[in-house]
Specification:
The protein has a six-stranded mixed β-sheet with strand order 1-2-5-4-9-8. About 35% of the residues lie in helices and about 10% in strands. The protein is of the alpha+beta class. It is elongated. It contains 46 helices and 38 strands.
């Protein structure tokens, strides 16, 4: 209804007309003469509280009252009545921006239900309204002290109070006609009349001080005491409030109360304000104090109800909105219904259906009573029917039905949530979480938390404890870890305030990207990590073998850096000066360690988005003339062109530039700064060294793309930190942080020192030239270029020997040719030591087999070898032996075999155990998507065998797409406090959906990751055998019904030195398998890249189960007993990984995925859903947690206290009352996301605005309140904001997003332009650029569009009939149209009326029964 408004949460705002300035004539004590205080009367007149034990007496009481007059029956004639449609019409005001929150003011007339009187206090119109007005007048009469009634106490019959006491203070609908017949005393002129019972509603009378005595006097909402509260009597302007129940409306009546103490306080403040006015001093603070001191309130004030003793306030049946109410049953039902996906519009439709059905039933009852009255005239006086039909649903004077709209229910739901919000937050905060599983969902943010149709957030981050209960929940607008800072810090403050343990284990789906941030924020993770490192060190022993191709914090000391040696140059003058000084002071070697840094955007998975800025920083590290290390950082981000002094450095070919992947850095410079491209192109690769390739040639690493941390670890024995927060930080910001300077300097120094170390080592890729041949020189026989497909093998050696002077060399007897003549490019060598027996020498063959001869076949003899296979001997035991050719050549691709003859398990196992090569053909089998085949099972077993052999060093498991595996002995066991989700890891290498090897690969991957508890596995299989199952059936269950095993057998993920080979074996075995239909391999290039990345993470310990961490618990039945499966095994649950968090996010998307809701309602739904989810998890997984059957946990808190006080016992011993926990600053869902600079810029702008004149919407207020600001940060939505963006695009494009957000604050007005977060500009820029492209496309096609319009204007009918004609008149007898067809009617017709059935469609029965209701009449019945 128009004018309907909503109250503040506190519900303390009252009728301004009842304040101290608007009281009517009083009797000297501040009371009106008509409303005498009941205090004295209640003390002296005990019969006022008399209650009868005979309920039947009230029927007689209602037949006739004190002085009741009988009015003649109202008669009406039957007329034609058009029933209007039944619709929901109880709504909030249309202008939400102007909605004021007040609870029980004087303007109840705005609801449209007539619960008011006019200025002359004349009786209202309407059946129910008249009854309410009369009830209030009668109660005023019966509750007055005897000396004010004009009658003696014995004469006045208080029959209405007696009725209320015996009917729990309800006037029931079925008694309303009798009540109306007696409510004539004291209401002269009011003709209540006789009306049918269907027109009446239930009435609830709320007079707690009358019902229970002075102890129940409503407390003052301001001072929370009833010591000075007195009755102020019934209001003469408003006599009731309407509420909505499931089937019909109901009404409520109460009195108004006044607190004398607060009234005195208000009067004192008024006196002080008056004196300040006289002295012309500021009195704004006193004015606000006066507004805060409210001393009158209605009996149903929300705060007053809550403060009532003995829980009497719970007897009040409704939840009050502004000038209306909803029954508590509806409010209780709305919470679970909305949590299950019911929208408020659906609940409104449900209420409309129930109310409309009740109205129809009342109309049916009325018509039956009319029929009965015609048959028996004496029943007419009892049923009070007339000759008219029953009224329409929305007739304000008769039935007066109303149904709340979805908007009304939405506002009521938000108001109700505010009353329980703090408790729900405390329920979350009280959860201790020594384990956290963190994950982000990016689907929920697309629908919930929308502002003017635009999503405010990008994703929802959720953290769960080991039981699956939500402990952390907040939204983010970008992928930066900075968004986590405020929520995580507030979480830690709560943990400290409650004395809870800090997290010691965190699960994440991106452990490599999140590890450094989480360990920085949670000191407990670092402390636990130290314990894990100590355990790993004890397990690894004192093994000094070089580490594998990975680096971990704690193995070596951190790379040293002295901040005094670093200089930063930003301006052109600074750059030129520092560059000149560096070139002048270069040491004799003239070597510079070189690197660059570039700002790069990353997505939600912390991976590259492809959007990069220009190179922003150059790093130079060198040794000066005193051999001291120096670093120069040159900032290019403030220069459009590269300075000339830098170009001069690149032109100097005598200076060596050394860097890891240096040519990629140079390529970026060429692209970003064209002026340096020609200089670098002319220089080429002269004295430009890629230190990774340089290191590979010295066999430090086996890959030319090895990372700098690995090179530093191998060569310098230091740990070089490479955190994502440093690598992907903002290198273009105004001033580099100390951390950025340290990171950039360490990188440059590491390049310099690694190169210097490599210069001391021999080049193992160098081969002999003719000039190098000297008789008697000791040399190594090595692979030549192109002989092996792996470049790393070039640094190995196969044998050692001495050059001899022998032009003709005789071969051993079994080798061909018998005589070998040395050529110009060959050399004769006498072999002394064979390092690689299987190494094949060119031109030599075995006579018996005609195959190429190996060193083992030839033995220690004199051989002829090409110079390209000879290099200087290196006297070192660390030089690797050349691997056998069969292990380094490209493996053959698998060829599909039919599934009819799969290989046997025994045959494959025998081949592997004998060291024979296992062909892919042995493992191939056509695999369906749903089930595993026998070949899959055999292949899975073979991959496990391979992994065991590789761990023992017998099978290297090399593959052309995988990085070289480290020596098994070099892999160290290590564990991490930040763990990855194993199932995320399994699904990371994406495979084709319908590839026939997909199912087998997935199962093999899981079997590689997880190891069964063998004792429980044997126990289960023994039980299965006792149940009559054969070994074949058991094996089938193991592979086809893995859920049975997982449900009762715990698994663990092994340590890195075992897990690495298990997973690698699966990749090697399955990755190259082809699909027989498509011919495509299971893995593509991206899958192999992710497989390599996953293997590196495994070596870091991100997936191995840490020692001492319990990840399994037993499942419980509702009665607390342990759940069993069909074989009698205890069932278990696992808390490993982030699966539970993802399931929670998925349920949110399923339940609310189609909803588009604002901020306030979204917060309500998430808080409710989170609370219910946590309660369910606790009941399912926590031993001893009670199954309370509902989710109003504050009621359990209350019950706990009552039982303890009354009976001295705890009803639920393990229950912790959330109401006992103190509040903290931690909040959920919507948290402040702005930076300090942006926050301060907005504060400065708000200080210049007159915020009192601004009218923010409810959504804007909710966002601002959650963000802790005066004006909300919202996306670009208004036309004024879009115009401002377009107008100043040239300025905006030259600034960073953070700078733009601060600059934008200068234009904020709080009306049409609001502050923005940096991400808002990024989002709007994409839409703006797309719109610009569309606009340009339309302009470019303008000429073509004009031609099309011209063509369309020509191809139209020449005439159109003025009036529509029938189809028959438009056709000739031959079927051809006689005139042009009708295109447009002169006037569009109304929709057709309801079709009427034909007589042949109707049956001839007198009646039928539907749903227990008879439709029709039975002839011959006495009543008909």
């Amino acid at each position: 209804m128009d004018g309907f408004e909503y109250p503040d949460i506190c519900g303390q705002c009252d009728d301004p007309s009842d304040s101290d300035d608007s009281n009517s004539s009083s009797n000297g004590s501040g009371r009106r003469d008509s409303d005498v205080d009941m205090e004295d009367y209640c003390v002296t007149h005990k019969d006022f509280y008399y209650e009868t034990s005979d309920p039947e007496c009230f029927d007689s009481d209602l037949e006739g009252g004190d002085g009741c007059k009988k009015y003649p029956e109202e008669t009406t004639t039957l007329n034609e009545f058009d029933f209007p449609d039944v619709v929901a019409d109880l709504d909030i005001p249309g202008d939400e921006d102007q909605l004021e929150d007040v609870d029980d003011g004087a303007e109840d007339k705005d609801i449209g239900d007539g619960l008011h009187t006019n200025s002359k206090h004349e009786p209202p119109s309407g059946i129910q309204q008249k009854l309410l007005w009369a009830v209030q007048n009668r109660l005023r009469l019966e509750l007055r002290p005897p000396n004010k009634t004009g009658k003696d106490d014995e004469v006045l019959d208080r029959w209405l109070v007696r009725y209320l006491r015996n009917h729990n203070w309800w006037i029931m609908q079925y008694d309303a006609p009798k009540i109306a017949a007696n409510l004539l005393e004291g209401n002269a002129g009011l003709r209540l009349g006789k009306h049918h019972v269907g027109y009446y509603c239930d009435i609830f009378v709320w007079l707690p001080d009358v019902r229970w005595g002075d102890e129940a006097m409503p407390c003052c909402p301001n001072c929370h005491s009833n010591r000075h509260v007195r009755s102020k009597g019934f209001s003469e302007k408003n006599f009731g409030r309407k509420g909505i129940n499931w089937k019909k409306a109901f009404y409520m009546i109460t009195k108004r109360y006044i607190c004398k103490h607060c009234e005195k306080t208000s009067q004192d403040i008024s006196t002080k304000i008056k004196s300040l006015k006289d002295m012309r001093k500021d009195y704004s603070a006193e004015t606000q104090m006066k507004k805060d001191v409210q001393y009158t309130h209605m009996g149903w004030n929300r705060v007053s109800l809550a403060l009532m003793p003995y829980g009497w306030g719970e007897e009040f049946p409704a939840f009050l909105t502004h000038r209306a109410a909803l029954h508590k049953d509806i409010m209780d039902a709305m919470r679970p219904m909305m949590n299950k996906g019911y929208r408020v519009e659906a609940i409104s439709d449900l209420l409309l259906e129930l109310h409309a059905k009740e109205h129809t039933r009342c109309a049916i009852r009325y018509e039956y009573d009319v029929m009965s009255a015609k048959k028996n005239p004496f029943s007419k006086s009892k049923t009070n029917v007339t000759n008219n039909t029953f009224s329409s649903f929305d007739d304000p004077d008769m039935y007066n039905g109303q149904v709340p709209t979805g908007s009304y229910l939405s506002e009521a739901r938000k108001k109700h949530h505010e009353t329980i919000r703090l408790h729900l937050e405390r329920e979350v905060k009280k959860i201790p979480s020594d384990t956290l599983a963190l994950d982000a969902s990016y689907k929920e943010g697309k629908n919930l938390f929308r502002y003017r149709g635009v999503p405010i957030f990008k994703g929802l981050v959720t953290g769960m404890d080991s039981f699956g209960r939500v402990r952390i929940s907040f939204h983010i607008v970008s992928d930066s870890h900075e968004q986590y800072d405020a929520p995580v810090e507030s979480f830690l403050k709560t943990v400290d305030a409650y004395g809870q343990p800090h997290p010691r284990i965190c699960f994440s789906d991106n452990p490599a990207g999140d590890e450094s941030y989480l360990k920085e924020k949670f000191t407990s993770l670092r402390a636990q990590q130290e314990k894990f490192d100590a355990m790993a060190a004890a397990a690894n022993g004192n093994d000094s073998t070089p580490a594998a191709d990975t680096s971990t914090d704690g193995v070596h000391p951190e790379f040293p850096f002295d901040p005094k040696c670093a200089e930063t140059a930003t301006s052109a003058k600074e750059i030129d000066g520092h560059m000149a000084a560096m070139i002048a002071n270069l040491g004799p070697q003239k070597v510079i360690g070189f690197d660059t840094e570039t700002k790069t955007e990353r997505n939600c998975r912390r991976r590259f988005t492809g959007v990069r800025s220009r190179v922003g920083l150059l790093q130079f590290a060198y040794r000066d003339e005193q051999n001291e290390k120096q670093v120069l950082l040159v900032r290019l981000c403030r220069h459009r062109k590269i300075p000339a002094s830098v170009i001069a450095l690149f032109q100097d070919h005598s200076i060596t530039l050394a860097g890891n992947n240096i040519f990629s850095d140079i390529s970026g410079l060429k692209k970003d700064y064209p002026e340096v491209a020609d200089v670098l192109k002319k220089r080429g690769d002269r004295n430009i060294i890629n230190i990774a390739v340089f290191a590979r040639k010295r066999d430090v690493v086996q890959s030319g793309v090895a990372g700098l941390p690995l090179l530093v670890e191998r060569l310098l024995k230091y740990f070089l930190r490479k955190d994502d927060d440093d690598v992907f930080s903002d290198w273009d910001q105004d001033k580099l942080t100390i951390r950025q300077i340290a990171y950039a300097s360490r990188d440059a120094l590491a390049h310099l020192e690694v190169y210097e170390k490599l210069l001391e080592m021999p080049d193992l890729n160098r081969r002999f030239k003719t000039r190098d041949v000297v008789i008697g020189t000791k040399v190594d026989i090595v692979p030549h270029s192109g002989m092996y497909r792996q470049v790393a093998a070039m640094a190995t050696r196969a044998a050692t020997g001495v050059i001899v002077d022998m032009p003709h060399v005789r071969s051993p007897s079994c080798i061909a040719p018998e005589m070998f003549e040395r050529g110009k490019t060959n050399v004769s060598i006498e072999i002394e030591t064979i390092h690689s027996p299987s190494f094949l020498l060119p031109e030599y063959t075995v006579k018996a087999t005609k195959q190429r001869a190996s060193l083992e076949d030839i033995g220690k003899a004199i051989v002829v070898a090409p110079l390209s296979m000879i290099r200087d001997h290196v006297d070192s035991q660390s030089i690797r032996s050349t691997p056998p050719d069969s292990e380094v050549t490209r493996p053959s691709r698998a060829v599909a075999q039919p599934a009819s003859n799969p290989p046997t398990i025994a045959s494959i196992a025998t081949k592997v155990s004998n060291g024979s090569k296992v062909d892919d053909d042995d493992f191939f089998e056509a695999v369906s998507i749903e089930d595993l085949s026998t070949a899959d099972i055999e292949m899975i077993r073979a991959s496990n065998i391979n992994s065991e052999r590789a761990q023992n060093g017998n099978l290297p498991l090399r593959h052309r797409h995988l990085n070289d595996p480290p020596p098994p002995s070099s892999i160290k066991d290590q564990y991490s406090t930040v763990l990855g989700d194993p199932f995320h890891a399994i699904s990371r290498p994406q495979v084709p959906m319908h590839h026939e090897n997909k199912k087998g690969y997935k199962v093999a991957f899981q079997n590689a990751f997880f190891i069964w508890n063998e004792s429980k596995k044997e126990e289960l299989e023994d039980r299965m055998r006792k149940n009559g199952m054969s070994d074949e059936q058991i094996e089938s269950e193991r592979y086809y019904n893995s859920a049975l095993y997982q449900g009762c057998i715990d698994r663990f993920i092994p340590s890195p030195r075992m897990l690495y080979w298990r997973v690698r074996a699966v990749f090697v075995m399955y990755g190259s398998l082809t699909d027989s239909k498509t011919g495509k391999e299971l893995f593509n290039a991206e899958s192999w890249r992710k497989a390599n990345s996953l293997l590196k993470e495994i070596l870091c310990g991100f997936y191995s189960d840490p020692p001492g961490v319990q990840l399994y618990t037993k499942k419980l039945n509702p009665d607390g007993s342990i759940k069993k499966n069909k074989y009698g095994m205890d069932m278990i649950e696992c808390s490993r990984g982030t699966n539970r968090v993802e399931a929670y996010h998925k349920n949110l998307n399923v339940t609310f995925g189609g909803w588009h809701m604002g901020v306030a309602m979204s917060a309500v739904l998430l808080a409710e859903n989170r609370h219910r989810h946590n309660q369910r998890c606790a009941e399912r997984r926590i031993d001893g947690h009670p199954m309370i059957g509902h989710y109003d946990t504050w009621l359990i808190d209350l019950l706990q206290g009552l039982v303890l006080k009354n009976h001295g016992m705890l009803l639920y011993p393990g229950w912790s009352n959330a109401s006992d926990f103190k509040d903290t600053e931690e909040s959920f869902d919507t948290t402040p996301l702005q930076s300090n600079d942006l926050h301060q810029a907005l504060e400065l702008r708000c200080d210049r605005l007159d915020l009192k004149k601004l009218k923010l919407t409810r959504e804007q207020k909710a966002i601002a309140r959650a963000q802790g600001v005066k004006l909300p940060f919202v996306p670009v939505t208004t036309p004024a904001e879009k115009r401002l963006f377009t107008r100043y695009y040239s300025i905006i494009s030259s600034k960073t997003e953070a700078e733009t957000a601060v600059w934008w604050c200068m234009h904020v007005n709080g009306d049409t332009i609001f502050p923005k977060l940096p991400v808002h500009f990024r989002i709007h820029l994409k839409a703006w650029l797309k719109s610009s492209r569309v606009e340009n496309s339309i302009k470019s096609a303008k000429k073509g569009s004009e031609k099309l319009e011209e063509l369309n204007s020509i191809l139209v009918p020449t005439s159109v009939p003025a009036e529509p004609t029938s189809l028959a008149s438009q056709s000739t007898p031959g079927g051809l149209a006689s005139e042009a067809p009708v295109l447009f009617a002169a006037e569009l017709p109304r929709p057709p009326a309801m079709p009427q059935p034909k007589e042949q469609a109707l049956h001839n029965k007198t009646h039928i029964i539907v749903g227990g209701t008879m439709i029709g009449f039975i002839p011959g019945l006495l009543c008909q």
